Amino acid sequence: PEISSYATRKPEKPVDSDEDVIICPCRQYKDEGMMIQCEKCGIWQHLDCVRPHVDPETLGVYTCDKCSPTEKLCPKTDIPLLPQPEYASQGETHFASLMREDKLHLYVGMTVYVLRAFKDKNNANASAKPKDENIFTGPGGVPHKSISPIKGPSKEAASLAPSNYPTYKTIGASASTADMDIFRVERLWKNESGAMFAFGYHFLRPHETFHEPSRKFFDNEVFRVPLYEVLPLDTIWRECWVLDPITFTKGRPLLAQEEHVYICEYRVDKTARLFHRLAKGKDGICTKWYAFHTFDVKIKCNRTFTPHEVPQDWVKATSNKQNKSKSAKVKKLDSAQPQPQQIQHHSRRDNSSSAICKARKKGALAKVLKTLLSQQNDSSPMDMSHLLAKTHKQEDSNTKSASNS
User: Fold this and answer.
1) Residues 307-317: pLDDT tens digits?
2) What's the CA gap between 400 and 180, in Å, rounded?
3) What is the pTM for the complete model shown?
4) How far is CA 46 from the centre of its chain?
5) pLDDT at 10 over 70
6) Angle between helices 389-404 and 340-374 in degrees, nearest 10
């Protein structure tokens, strides 16, 4: 959607707001654990991130890396988790934030582009390899393995061969992000040899899912898929942003670039066939004034994008078939509903036929009764026909009215 006509508000603190500002190098805008405040700018940071293993009572006056001239030149971005999580294997150190050699700041919860190698069409032994139910082939052609979030990332990282993945060092600056996977980082760690890895799950684009050809999407819509994977940090290209529709129409994160912002409202299963709506507020985007640009007017976005081009002839033929089927149904319903004259004629004919049927049944019953009476030994039977006199009168009147009509 076009947003150039919408002005954004600068991150200035509202006059009537007494909210604490949390801006930490770990990029987690949460009030967790021991917090420490900068004496100059007044922002709050996590003590474990900026001064680990330091007693706050002996810290004295604290200034953040932006206000301190010494730390401004070399800010602390490699922030280990304290304490280390239970799933950490021996020799591993898990981090909340890491800085790569090319100064790309990686942190837990960010969304990134992941480089993928293309499939080798000349590989004749590809069909001879054993199949694994946990291996799925991505859009780039390289299979990526789905593993358990609780157990398996460490073993998978140890078995990764660096030559299987392209890196940011081997890809030119003109690489297209349309050929890259979208990946959300949930864990960052280093092993004993110093190799860095990321663990998380993937997002799929519309053309990577199974859907009706006429289904429409947002221009930049993606879908979360429960496909977890371990990747070397060198395969990460750069940062992108995935927002839910409410946050997308409200504004943008401060550092977000519009061409790298995506919408995610649904998740799909591993087969990419079933769509389910995600719960709200699961994208981890902070919408506080100090971390988010808010539009003066919310933008409107509609689903108008179709990844598959449907031929116009097919569309016309389908619409003609639908119109013909609708007209045939209408004609059938009209023919099934009788006209008022037909209803009156049918009612008269039904009354006369019912009267004739009753007269036939009455004659047959009288014949049977006479036969039974003749077979009785009683010479003077009692006549009880007067009990049916009222019924006979009603039947006679009904018969007369039917014959007159």
Assistant:
1) 877 666 655 55
2) 90
3) 0.68
4) 34
5) no
6) 140
